[in-house]
Amino acid sequence: MEKGNDEVDKLKSKFVSAWHNVKYSWVLKSKTSFSRNSPVFVLGKCYHFKVEDEETPTDNSSFESAEDEIVMGNVEAFRKDFASRVWLTYREDFPALLDSALTSDCGWGCTLRAGQMMLAQGLINHFLGRDWTWSETLSLQPLDSETWTSTAARKLVASLEATLQGDRPVAPQPLPQPQGGAEEADTHLREVYHRTVVSWFGDGPSAQLGMHRLVELGRTSGKRAGDWYGPAVVAHILRRAVDEATEPDLTGISVYVAQDCTVYSADVIDSHAPRPGGPPKLHGEALMDTRAVIILIPIRLGGEKINPDYFNFVKGILSLDYCIGIIGGKPKQAYYFVGFQDDSLIYMDPHYCQSFVDVSTSDFPLQSYHCPSPKKMPFNKMDPSCTIGFYSRTVEDFNRISTELAKILKPSAKEKYPAFTFVNGHGRDYELAGPMEKKEWPFIRDSRKLGATAGDFVLL
User: Is the pTM of this model over 0.85?
Assistant: First the structure.
């Protein structure tokens, strides 16, 4: 009887995954327009699309990111930068998650995916630098609804008829060795790091930062596979995932999560110290005797809706070169915010169901981990609950970050209170409780008020 229930659960998971694929993939066909007359910011980099010698520019001229082939100003540089960010979306047909029959995170895993994307950006900054771009970005194909209409029904029938599989073994494969001079070797090394970072987020039990691992760690916060995760809980799950990772390359980085909208400087500095028993790490050409720190700050920018007084604050944050983005979105729909133009946020959308990719092979395809189509959302649609991320390579970097952020954090006359604060000393000096892993107040609200439907999407 128990086996029969498991089969029913698995079939139900298949149908739910197919429905969410319909619900979430069609919206990608819409184009996103960018003004030629306003700068575009992406994680601290600024792009201008306006052509300097254009005779009569108009305010309503736009650049359509998905299909427009006319390159003007910094459009190509923007495309390469955006598409080089690691894109982590819903996946289907992966090994069943812990203590469940779920083989897809469609419909519930968007906040975890947004958190993965922000963490991936921190790791890209750490291993490859903010200026790194993937050489194949401009060859990526635009996404549209054909991805579902032409293949999903056929895949669903095939998957239901196929023998339901258990966990798929993941075994590391040797990478091909580079041939040629120093430049080729450097290019190869960068591609190795690129591929390695992506593989850490693979959808299998052995992936250090993958969905299986995050769901397992979420159990300590009272979460299970299929539950909705808020941005604050995800921040703590990411911290534990990195702290407990066994990959040697991950021992050179740590994650600090702010408590009650307060960053305790001494705690961050302690996080920069090498992991106990860990050897110094080689980064680039320098031997690093400290760890880099990814700083995650769960905050709330208003009550039931975002306070408009915080719009400029969010713009200021996304204009910083050490910002690694924001886990945010609309109620019950998480996005990864990476930039803005005028009064719209630019984001990467995890609500797109793709097939499982076996990242254990040395040449697994990378195309589905990079998004060619940026999307925009008005600031006033942003849910006030979010988590901001920064990357600090050294203690000196952190001192610079805290000094610069203090200027942005100065409250306005209307707002009166900063979004978060920096305080000297350790959190324990203020007799605070432990990390907020089993609660998210005030970062979540009554779930009965947060129902989401397909109509919640904004077609831009």
Answer: no
